[in-house]
Amino acid sequence: MFLRFGKIFSHLKSVEKYPRTTWYVQSCSSSDISKERTKLAPIQERRMIDRFRLVAKGGDGGNGCESFRRSRHARRGVPDGGKGGRGGDVILESSRAVWDFSGLQHHVNAKRGGNGSSKNMIGSRGADKIVQVPVGTAIHLVQGELPSTVEINLSSTLDPWDIPTSMHSEHEPIQHCSNNDCAGSVSEEPTNQCIQSKTNEQAPKLKNTNRIKQGQTKPYGVTISKYNSGLEEEVSFVDGENECSSIEEFKTETLTSGSEDELDEEVEMQYDVAELTEPGQRIIIAQGGEGGLGSVALVGTTVSMGKNMNIDSETSDDDVTSQRAGLPGSEILLVLELKSIADVGLVGMPNAGKSTLLGAMSRAKPRVGDYAFTTLRPNLGNLTYDDFSVTVADIPGLITGAHENRGLGHAFLRHIERTKVLAYVLDLAAALDGKKGLPPWKQLRDLITELEFYSEGLSNRPSLVVANKIDEAGAEDVFKELKQRVHGVQIFPVCAVLQEGVPELKAALKKLVGGEESHKLKLDAIVID
Ligand SMILES: Nc1nc2c(ncn2[C@@H]2O[C@H](COP(=O)(O)OP(=O)(O)OP(=O)(O)O)[C@@H](O)[C@H]2O)c(=O)[nH]1
Fold it and tell me: Compositionally biased, Gly residues: which spans (predicted)?
């Protein structure tokens, strides 16, 4: 009884002793949480990483086991050493759960296979490493074997209506993961497509892109073997002035050399070797090495100490040791690039009202501000019709010289590549009341020029013009002049803030996306003084 009282008393004392501390801790932790909450910027404010350099290495194969079971009847021993396990693969999987590459690591290695053991036990298979990437990821190959591309569709050559739905061609059936091949951490979902890698020889020939010509050496970059010829020679690594002696040196130089912007120092690479355009698609980018042979498989070869019964004098100990060692996993250096997939791309100068318009047309809640470059990443919204749904992407504002990396640069122009329809959002009031902006027809000319500078033919897709801010004083007259100066496409007067003209615009977008209409905007259809 006395003891119990003593315990309670001492407990009370301890509570009394630290009452303030306890309260302090509580209040401190809650304020910390609120501080942290405020510190966490909304997703739109965070810098989007839509280009990423990745070095992937498949797991090495496990070593085979040298083991002999001796018995009264087999004094020299019967081989019973198992084979080493296969190394794990590095797999890219497209997922809607990730928006950009900010969660990725530059180096990804799959696990090594387990060593074989006696009693003919095969080593365990190394676990695969699955890297989740956003839907719309394009893969460019810098060094290594081509990842498992089966169909190569360069975005620049894509028909705008023909957004690739799968990466496999009719000629090449997809090899789905079998239990043996894709064990480890890979979940066996029936919808997931797992496509095996191909060797250089099997790879289809690549076309040149208009940005980098094949075989062209850039001042900063790496020249790798010509893929078209399938030859592996002529490899040199150039990093600025210095020539790097190995790919490792090049990789460490490039990976440690600061920001993602430096990726713009274009390296010689194979563009768009594969694209992940649907959620759940998988591609093996680095394969695990095969396990080494165990003594069971090595019967007939010389083994050390003359333990084997059949001695073949031609096979040396070194050969056997090398056969027993697991093979290294393949290694690859890639550049991943994100290209949003949307039916409609809203293109316009900063502050034209693209985000406001997206919010007016859909349930999206993009950030709106009366300053340029409020939008730092493409926002997606969904327009729902009775029988139809259209995805709209609000692309960050473009300015003159964007293709030369001015403003937010050309980083976002690539997001336009995969849109079917372009909606040019113009600010009718940009040059009114002494504002320093451009009149809408000049905005239009500059926008088309930027798109074409970035990639020829980028503006050559069904388009319409949104003449925004019609509510502003004097905007009606500007709109009339715009209609006289721009021909060949529909022009919609809209007040995005008040949602005026939005239903008509939505109906027109539906027709363009559905293919009922296909007006295209040409540079020579714009009259400028
Ligand atoms: N008067 C008027 N103002 C508008 C209209 N639409 C947008 N604005 C204003 O224009 C400013 C810019 O709007 P945003 O939607 O952020 O423009 P944005 O094109 O997305 O801008 P960036 O993010 O820089 O590309 C905001 O202050 C909006 O309130 C409109 O129809 N009428």
Answer: 79-88
